[in-house]
Amino acid sequence: MARLWLLLLLALGLAAAAKSPYQQVLQHSRLRGRQHGPNVCAVQKLIGTNRKYFTNCKQWYQRKICGKSTVISYECCPGYEKVPGEKGCPAALPLSNIYETLGVVGSATTQLYSDRSNLRPEIEGPGSFTIFAPSNEAWASLSAETLDSLVSNVNIELLNALRYHMVDKRVLTDDLKHGTTLNSMYQNLPIQIHHYPNGIVTVNCARLLKADHHATNGVVHVIDKVIATTTNTIQQIIETEDNLETLRAAVAASDLNSLLESEGQFTLLAPTDEAFNKIPQETLNRILGDPEALRDLLNHHILKSAMCAEAIIAGLTMETLEGTTLDVGCSGEELTLNGKPIIANKDILATNGVVHFVNELLIPDSAKTLFELAQESEVSKSTDFFRQAGLSSHLTGSERVTLLAPVNDVFKDGLPVIDSNMRNLLLNHIVKDQLSSKYLYHGQKLQTLGDKELRVFVYRNNLCIENACIAAHDKRGRFGTLFSMDKMLTPPTGSVMDVLKADHRFSTLVAAIQSAGLTENLNRPGTFTVFAPTNEAFRAMPQGELNKLMGNAKELANILKFHVADEILVSGAVNALVRLKSMQGDKLEVSMKNNVIHINKEPVAESDIMATNGVIYAVNSVLQPQASRPQERGDEPADPALEIFKQASALSKVSQRNPRLAPVYSRLLARMKENAG
């Protein structure tokens, strides 16, 4: 019996899980409306319009559709009606034929035109049909010319139009699967169905308003538009639209014709001639003349699935054929792409998808030069810097390089003066080969256009190249990749000893290293982090202590080794606290406080002085290992007599409880007398 119950629960769970998105949203609306009685649904209505939506959980709390405010109203769920004097909507709608049902569910105009076109006998009689019935507002929104062309010849055009809205079988919302087609009752022409995760269902891009109204001879779904037949592919639409001339040529040049003619469900964001004309001619010519860049450009305008405008009620991210993503959203009645209202004409239906005209060209990173990538990002000042230094050709040509570009904040006080040294430094911000940060590894060596070798350091919280760390995701262009760096790089110019000798601040330290016999260690290849005491640090020591230290080579070497760790730690890797093992053996604690690096709680005067075999931090104090530090009062050697007294006092109390400890107590008393003597 228990097993039977388990199987039943599993079956119920699977049934619940199999509910379509539309049914899930409808169920949520029921839950929100149940306090008003049975079969009441909560509906969100856009303020100032007649547009209504069943609400999902997210919309319920945000109270917005396409960024516009909504009000909550409560009405009978589909298939139910009110009863005078009773709460909610307790009664099911009367079950009648499709013709009668049209008048009950808000599609009286469709009912009227069914009568005029002689469709009425068919939808009153026996059979099993589905009709996607335009609402009264949908018919009223048609232009006078379109409506006149339909109703003036009611025996042909109107009947054909209505039969195109019909299917010769019963189809409920659970059967309306995303991306499927239904054969209409007009020449078996297809009707395209899209059932989106947010619960929106569209029929030829018309939104389903009220669904699943059962009739004795079928089912009625109310939609918000009068739908028209579709016979053209996306490619055929491109070929017939006058304002897509440049796009037409670009598609032909990139051999995308066959894709846009093939079966499938795509969304083409079709750039108009106006969109192409907005692009600088030099940029446009470069892309049109580069088959790979052109193909990337066009694929960036093609979404992998059909997206009707009515399905977009909030922002969502969609993948393009190029593999990139676009942020598709809406603001009121306007569709937006990456936050911009650039869609000029929407929902042009094709047999293999939908076309939206856009009046701005969407150029993907993969079709851009390094210069274009940088100009549109947080490193735009860097591009000006490189341009002023005469290095533009490396950012606009077909050379495979990676640009290590400092972010704009680095230059908040203005750009440095450009001289030959600065130009060489900038050349060392351009790495040979087009890289991707996800393939960089610790210890990797990168060659620059300035003939320097840069090292890669991989840390738990950062990825750094020499002293600079990557501050944002890569931007990969047509030939170059852009790394946004948090500071200017300082390529190493010599070993640790070379750097210390070249800096007058460390003359005392250099002498100490030489005296302690550590010069060879700091000249050899390695990965050192050196916390280098400045001359000021040595002057701060008591003269006697300094003389004693300098006169004891062994003790001096011990102190100096405490200032060196055998791994490279640049400041960008220090987030909270990092512990390093010094060459002396004790731990060094490196921390960040108020954007200043501290070593053993002492502030660092200068960080990230790079050497070929390590990194140097200038410190204005000489660090002391634990064993060499002056002891505090609590750490002073204890008086032996006092210690014996403490032990004797404790043992006296214990021995009174345990006679076996009495001899020990006696011996301690004897020692006390000896010390007293």
Secondary-structure-based class equals alpha+beta
CATH class of the largest domain: Mainly Beta
Beta-strand segment tally: 35
Number of separate structural domains: 5
Segments where pLDDT lies below 50 for 5+ residues?
A: 6-16, 630-656
What would CATH call the architecture of the largest domain? Roll
What's the CATH H-level superfamily name of the largest domain?
FAS1 domain
Subcellular location: Secreted, Extracellular space, Extracellular matrix
Keywords: Cell adhesion, Disulfide bond, Extracellular matrix, Gamma-carboxyglutamic acid, Phosphoprotein, Repeat, Secreted, Signal
Domain FAS1: 95-227, 231-362, 366-489, 493-623
Signal peptide: 1-17
Structure description:
This protein folds into five domains: 21-90, no CATH class; 93-223, FAS1 domain; 234-362, FAS1 domain; 368-485, Roll (FAS1 domain), CATH 2.30.180; 496-619, Roll (FAS1 domain), CATH 2.30.180. By secondary structure, it is α+β, with helices and mostly antiparallel strands. The strands form eight sheets. The chain has a seven-stranded mixed sheet. Strands 30-29-35-34-33-32-31 form a seven-stranded mixed sheet. Strands 2-1-4-3 form a four-stranded antiparallel sheet. It is 34% helix and 25% strand. Mean pLDDT is 89; it is low at 6-16 and 630-656. It has 27 helices and 35 strands. Strand 19 and strand 20 (353-358) form a beta hairpin. It holds the Pfam family Fasciclin. Its main location: secreted.
